[in-house]
Each structure stands twice: as structure tokens, then as C-alpha cells.
Hints:
Layout: E1 3-12, E2 16-19, H1 20-23, H2 31-38, E3 42-45, H3 51-66, E4 75-79, H4 90-98, E5 105-108, H5 114-127, E6 133-140, E7 158-168, E8 172-178, E9 186-187, E10 218-219, H6 221-240, E11 252-255, H7 260-270, H8 281-284, H9 291-301, E12 310-317, E13 321-328
Parallel strand pairs: 4-5, 4-6, 11-12
Antiparallel strand pairs: 1-7, 2-3, 6-7, 8-13, 9-10, 12-13
The chain binds coenzyme A.
Amino acid sequence: xxxxxxxxxxxxxxxxxxxxxxxxxxxxxxxxxxxxxxxxxxxxxxxxxxxxxxxxxxxxxxxxxxxxxxxxxxxxxxxxxxxxxxxxxxxxxxxxxxxxxxxxxxxxxxxxxxxxxxxxxxxxxxxxxxxxxxxxxxxxxxxxxxxxxxxxxxxxxxxxxxxxxxxxxxxxxxxxxxxxxxxxxxxxxxxxxxxxxxxxxxxxxxxxxxxxxxxxxxxxxxxxxxxxxxxxxxxxxxxxxxxxxxxxxxxxxxxxxxxxxxxxxxxxxxxxxxxxxxxxxxxxxxxxxxxxxxxxxxxxxxxxxxxxxxxxxxxxxxxxxxxxxxxxx
Length: 329
Ligand SMILES: CC(C)(COP(=O)(O)OP(=O)(O)OC[C@H]1O[C@@H](n2cnc3c(N)ncnc32)[C@H](O)[C@@H]1OP(=O)(O)O)[C@@H](O)C(=O)NCCC(=O)NCCS
């Protein structure tokens, strides 16, 4: 075995459509600014459904499309930064809901690179003999968005998608990376309780600002933009390095749907046209780790992705994490 077969994907579309005009009720902004700076016209948000629930709905769709019964699943890899519980993992709850009880289940916290990290990990376990792995990427970013911050609340959205993957002898290459020095540019601090014995608490510098609000995403948009426009082309080239293949061999790139301007600038750096990219950010917004599999599911259902193609996934986000996969499907 050298590669991965994506047997099927599935997704869940949250019920609320939030337009740019709707956001003007929360912050001083306008449709034209949001469209031209981000490429987003509207996004989807949950109406109270937990992250594990939207992940489960996506997982059930992927299982059904692939004709996989829950007892065939050897491992569940969840990816989320907006899980409902400190513990257990979202993947554990999804396992309960779909009836895949007994197999290992855990979440990866790699932000918007989560699906790429998950695929890479699935590849490793499939190489060791596993037969079918379920990757579930679900995000309820609306629960950790500061709707008083106009520079970030216009970007984030909710969504979920899943993939059932199996071993294959097709081409597969990957690259993963992370630079913790950049963590200060995109993060959400957790509220942690104090305990009754705390006396003169120790202040440890962690490079975030002490006055930042807790439990919401904080972003330095310009720094993230600079990082992302480099990360996208660099990860693709790093994944291809030493394989004998080039960008020209890739039929379609499905990038993390962060911002259309990031993708357009990165495309120029990579020396390819926008026709090599699939994007759905205009109606989905940025759904962190769910964005790549969600875009894949849409491209697949529209016949844009089909067997025989070489596709590339590239992700980048908080951490700062980054990664890419190039694979034949
Ligand atoms: C967030 C982002 C869209 C902001 O765009 P930008 O061109 O850098 O905008 P700036 O922050 O320079 O702000 C320009 C002006 O627009 C204003 N502005 C910011 N958000 C606004 C909004 N939603 N509506 C209207 N005006 C806004 C700013 O206040 C500023 O006004 P000023 O010039 O009077 O001070 C851009 O930095 C970006 O896309 N960054 C990457 C974010 C991302 O993709 N994150 C997820 C990665 S996984």
C-alpha cells in the first residue's frame, strides 16, 4: 500500500444562512467591504446544534455513501477547535452516535490544517494494516467568534464534513509543519477555573495579551494573511519535493477556504491560475478544519472531482500549523 482511497465524503449544512447584511446588525461593516476583502457573500451557522451533532450528521452521510457499516470502522479521527467538551473528544461522541463502539477515537487540534493532519495520520495507520478510517471534521466557530470584532466575525462560520478512507496503491505524498512562534497571531484562550488553594497566582508569559477576551478567536489579520499566502504555495511544493512530480501534475487544488484573496495571491506565488483551485468560500465562509473536506464533498457531488485525478489539499491556520497532501484518486 502506498496511498489512500477516499471511498466517500459527506457533509452537513447548518440551517442558518447569514448574509453580510445580517452582520451589519452586530458590527459596522457592509457587504461590499466583506466581499472585496474576503470573497464571502454568506455563510452558514448552526441554530444550537452541538459540534458533535453536526459531525455525526456528516459522518452518517459519508458512511452511507461509501456503503460502510459502523463495525467496519477501525479508527475515528476527529478534527475540531470548537468541540463541545474539554473531554471526551468529539470523535468519541460521534462513535457513540453512529454505533462504532470499540475502535480508537480521538481529536486532532491542528486548527484549519486539521483535515490535512487527519489524512496524514490516517495514511500512517492504513499503512499498518487498518482497513477503514473515518475522518470527521466539524466546527461550530460561531460559538467562539467575537461578534463585536468586525475584522474577524465576518470570516468565521459553522460546518462539518467527513470522509471514509481505505488503503490503496495510488500515489500519496504529504507535508506537515507548525511554527509555535506565530501562535500569537490567531488563538482563542480557554477560561480555566482557579482552585481554592491558589495563593498569589504565578503569571507566565505566553505571548498573548492579558486583556484579550477569553473563549473567542483573536486574530492579527495582517500577520495571518502574510503567513497564509506563503504557507499555501510552500506546503504544496514541500509535499511534492522528491516525488518527481510538479505542480503541473496536479489537476485540482482544494485549499483551506480562509479568504479568496489569500488563495488568489498564493496562486500567483505558485505560478498557477485560479482555474486549478476549487473554492466555495463565497457561500460557506471559513469553517476551519471542516472547510477542505466540505469543499471536497461539494466538488465531488458536482462532478468536479472524479477518479483518475491528482488532487491536492492544503491547509494553514492557528498554531501556526500548515500542511499539504497530493494524491491520486
Ligand atoms: C481580516 C482581513 C480581511 C482584513 O483586511 P485588511 O485589508 O488587512 O484590513 P485592515 O485590517 O488593514 O483594515 C482596513 C480598514 O478596514 C476596516 N475594517 C476592518 N474590518 C472591517 C469590516 N468588517 N468592515 C468594514 N471595515 C472594516 C479597518 O478598521 C481599517 O480601517 P481604517 O483604515 O480606517 O483603520 C485580512 O487581514 C485577512 O484576510 N487576513 C487573513 C484572515 C484569515 O484568513 N484568517 C483565517 C486564517 S485560517
